[in-house]
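Morning F.,

Quick status update on the modeling queue. The single chain you submitted on Monday has been processed. Sequence for confirmation:
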Amino acid sequence: MPLWHEVRTSGQNEKFRTKFVSDWIRSLGVDDNRVFLDVGAGNMPFRPQIRAAGFTYLSQDFGQYTGDNQHPGLQAGAGNWTTSGHDITCDIVDLPENTADVILCSEVLEHVPDPLAALQSISRALNAGGVALVTVPFQSRMHQAPYWYVSGLSPYWFHHHSPRTGLQVVRVTKVGDFVDQTIQEFGLFASALKLGHVSQLLLRIIAPLIRKLINKELLESGGLGVYVQLRKQEEHRQL
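Structure tokens below.
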């Protein structure tokens, strides 16, 4: 069985991730008796959909990132980030235990000093048999500093650490390859120079040809994200 399933996105990242998370939420069905914990919820973009599915929605965030531009790298912009109004305000390693049947942790682990401790906390917060979706960048530029500690995590990281935390890996999706990554980065470069999106569109059109021309090792070395679906084991003592 392969360690992960790879999908190609024509260089799309955020749009693809939003659809992936929305489809995953939809796949959970409708159930008024389950609690859904949105870890590192930020602006809570999925709250309406989660509530519409009948879940009891709880948002958690540490509430310290303000989106200002006083630090290097990409920022959300002052006033564009929610720092209050969350149901639970705490560090990610202090999530309340046995709280949720479902957990979403999307684009968060790169912003915590100890991703393994965060994954252990997610495991403790899940009820036995509960499920989680964790998404992280495959690699990323500096963003939301000073709360940016790792540029991304690999599928191997999750396969190695998840069982030790009591979480069974159900499915790992590696999003994109070197060509997708190149299309995304070139699009940002062109946009910054106000060159429009014509060149990026051309890259998307010829992407199949590019994949045939470059070697397999280089193609596999890149990517945009890693999405991991997990299930809490019935009984586990964390190491």
